[in-house]
């Protein structure tokens, strides 16, 4: 069962990142670009935005959400730091239901899960990358880390483990008779969060809060998990060391995460974050934005609208 924990209590850092900060493009190295494009278009409802050489980008018709870079022969290395999953956020439960119905029609294996404050399903793409599809449901309750343990509580006060099987019938009831499964995802679809494997959770939380400026939404060295965000969101970045403490990054050219993107709402807020980062570490200016790596060597691009 995929583990996923959240907390809605904001423990603001001294220099919190702008509350309107959000997630952007996730870039992956893949071994077969054609197969991956077909999967994300046909099964997950993405639109192909562009393709050039060994690169392609997909999304929902607006900004790029997913970039795929082909490296033939690339392999996936288990027990290394990197991307646990990236999460596609739908604007409402009706659109999530449409996405899940598409998977059911194709008989594609997925794992519908009720996180109380979100409804979700998990699946693996053809190259083994886990993807989460979700919609917000804060009216149903909350979940997170409390007293160094996981907790989840429904709106009526009942406790839950926060990882119960989703009531699929209830979710599918949001569908309308004229909803077509062959239509792409709506333009409001976006990357909601990423969840990373890191070598040390305490180190990672310190980096993402002190250097980047996210708020700590709940973390625990004992549980080997932490969650950080901007503006009180349950999490923009999840962090865990469930594969083991001190694990190394995958070798260069491996399948998986190249970088994920953090988007600031304006140049002023971007400059503030960039200045703080430059005091801590070397940076690389790229066409995509300011490129850095976290202590576990997960790539990050910082940019502004």
- Let me know the average pLDDT: 94
- Work out the count of structural domains: 1
Largest sheet: 9 strands, mixed
Q: Mind telling me which CATH architecture this is?
A: Roll
CATH homologous superfamily assignment: 2,3-Dihydroxybiphenyl 1,2-Dioxygenase, domain 1
Work out the number of β strands. 20
Large-scale geometry: globular
- Which stretches are poorly predicted, pLDDT < 50 over at least 5 residues? 1-13
CATH fold descriptor = 2,3-Dihydroxybiphenyl 1,2-Dioxygenase, domain 1
Q: What's the SSE pattern? A: EHEEEEHEEEEEEEHEHEEEEHEEE
| First-to-last CA distance | 37 Å
Compute the gyration radius: what is it? 19 Å
| Proportion of strand residues | 35-45%
Q: What structural category arises from helix and sheet content?
A: alpha+beta
Assembly type of the shown chains? single chain
**How much helix is in the residues?**
10-25%
CATH class, named Alpha Beta
Count of separate DSSP helical elements: 5
Main sheet: strand order: 12-6-7-8-5-13-16-15-14
